[in-house]
Structure formats: C-alpha cells, structure tokens
Amino acid sequence: MTKPLLNPPRWGGLLINVLHSPSLTGRVGVGLLFFLFFSCSDSPFPDFTKTKNGLYYKLIDIGESDKRAKPGDYVTVQMIIKSEKDSILYDTRRIGLDGSVTFLLTTPQQEKDYREGFQYLSEGDSAAFITDAYAFYMKKNNKPVPMGMKMESIIKVQARVLKIRTPEEHAKDMLIEKGKLEQAEFEEKKILDKYMADSSIPAQLIGNGMYYIKLQEGKGLTPDSGSVALLNYRGSFLNGRCFDFFFESQPFEYMVGQEDQLIKGLEIGVRRMHEGEKAKFIIPSHLAFGSSGSSTEIVPPFTTVIYEVELLKVQ
C-alpha cells in the first residue's frame, strides 16, 4: 500500500528507526550529516535547511530503500504544489493511474529549482521544499507570475518519491506498460464489437470508433463554437447501469468549444446534433475517460460508455 503523501515531520521517530534498522543506518547517517551541515545556516523557515542553490528543504519521512535519485534518472513522484496561502497550484493526484508523474531528473536549471530537492531523496522518502514565485513561474516555466503574487511569494512543494529508475530500467518499464495498454485496448474493443454485434443497433460509425444513433429528429440550429447548448443527458455502461445524468428542470449549459466541460466524445457528438434532436452515442474510452477512468473513480479505465443526449436549445 502506498503511504499517505503528506505526513507530519517526525524526527524523534526517525532517530529511533535508525537505531533499530541496520539496513537504514548508512543512508540515514548520510542524510543526517547533510541535514546537520545545512542546519548550521540561518533559515527563515523553522526546520528547513537551505541548499547551495537556495532551495529550502525538509525531510519529512524516510522510506526503506537506499536507492537515491541522481541526474539522468527517471523519478516517479506524488506531488502537491501550493501557494503561500495554501491554494493548490498543481496536484499529481489528479493525474494518471496512481496519481503520480514521472520525469527525467536533471541538474538544477536555476536558483531555487525545486527539483534539486529530489537529489537528496531515495525511494519511499517524502519531503517539503520551499521556493518562490519568480523561480517557479518565470525561471522554470517561462510564465509571468500570476496576479495576486509577488516575485518573492512563497511556493511550497510536498512530495513523495515512489520509484527511481535508470534510463535502462525506465525503457524496460515503458515496454511493459505499453504491452499492458495495448492489451487493455484490445480487450475493450472486443467487448464493444460483441456489444454492437449482439444488439444489432443501426448505428453510424463516426470519427475514431465512436457510434452515433439518432433517436429523434431535430430541426433547429447546430451548435457552433461560442454558442451555448442546453442539454439533458444520461451516461451509462454497456450493461445499462447509469453512472451520470443531467435531467433536471435546469438543463446543463455547455459552452460549445470550451474544454473540460464534456468528455471528448460528447463534444464531437453534440456538434452533429440539431436543436430538438435526441441521440445516443457509444463512446470508446479514448474519447471518454481514457486509461485512467473517471476522476470520481466510478468509470474504470478502458471502459466504453453510452450517452443519451437531448439538445434542447442552442443560444
């Protein structure tokens, strides 16, 4: 089981672990030397130490591995980045199958580069870093500092290292992962093909493997970018079980062309409809909730879904 991402500091517990865990004694000893060395410098943040590139760093928890990251390795982490006022700026828990991201660890690219901190961590370790808005936005991402922030505004990073891989190990992992994805896509397509064959639905195959079934003719406008489409809809699995619906006195307002309001398959489908039309769309996962499933975890990865949609009005 993956540990919680964010744990409170526990230096007392850490020292006890050292005394009772011979396998950790060496690496923790080095870690403590690092910590004590930098602790000699003044820090405006209690318990944080300053690295040579100006990053403030605090080890929160120690894992059981002694495999430490170095530039050139691929590092898989769970990470939350927050503003000074604790607004979440980035959260890997909203990404991917296990809420983590993998990146190539490079040498620090500029002062206060938060990725420098990962060089001091091993698999299973968690830590907190403090940088500033100038380093995070302008130097690292080449973006202006957002309104409401100053150049010196604090940016807080909390991270846990899940996996460290050499380039060779990473390439091998990618091959295995590619095989799993291809197998999952293959299985999904088999299920969809069988469903279509068994149900004998007179459906029209439209872009990228999605099916369109007109249930009621419409005579009005077709939604274009910038218009507002008022919708009723119902989402279900191939077995008919409903997982999503919007049939209310106040219909769903879709700003046509605006991303992240609807899944991709519905964006494509709604643009084909006319005002007053009812239609059913059978949407494979690559146009629905993908290889990760829905953020609510109701729709599993690689799952074909069905949406019945009524286009009430185009404004």
Low-confidence stretches: 1-40
Main sheet summary: 7 strands, antiparallel
- The proportion of strand residues reads 25-35%
Our measurement of the CA-to-CA distance between the termini, rounded to an integer number of angstroms, reads 50 Å
Report the radius of gyration as a whole number of Å.
25 Å
Q: What would you call the shape?
A: elongated
How many strand units?
A: 14
Order of helices and strands: HHEEEEEEHEHEEEEEHEE
Key features of this structure:
315 residues; single chain; seven-stranded antiparallel sheet; 5 helices; elongated; alpha+beta
Can you characterise this structure?
The protein has 315 residues and is α+β, with helices and mostly antiparallel strands. The strands form two sheets. Strands 1, 2, 3, 4, 5, 6 and 7 form a seven-stranded antiparallel β-sheet that branches. Strands 8, 9, 10, 11, 12, 13 and 14 form a seven-stranded antiparallel β-sheet that branches. Residues 1-40 have low confidence and may be disordered. The chain has helices at residues 11-20, 22-39, 133-140, 167-199, 264-270, and strands spanning 49-50, 56-61, 74-83, 88-91, 101-104, 126-132, 154-165, 204-206, 210-216, 228-237, 242-246, 252-255, 278-283, 305-314.
Structure in a nutshell:
The protein is built from five helices and 14 strands. The protein has 315 residues and is α+β, with helices and mostly antiparallel strands. Mean pLDDT is 82; it is low at 1-40.
Please write out the topology.
Elements: H1 11-20, H2 22-39, E1 49-50, E2 56-61, E3 74-83, E4 88-91, E5 101-104, E6 126-132, H3 133-140, E7 154-165, H4 167-199, E8 204-206, E9 210-216, E10 228-237, E11 242-246, E12 252-255, H5 264-270, E13 278-283, E14 305-314
Antiparallel strand pairs: 1-2, 2-6, 3-4, 3-5, 3-7, 6-7, 8-9, 9-13, 10-11, 10-12, 10-14, 13-14
Helix pairs in contact: 1-2
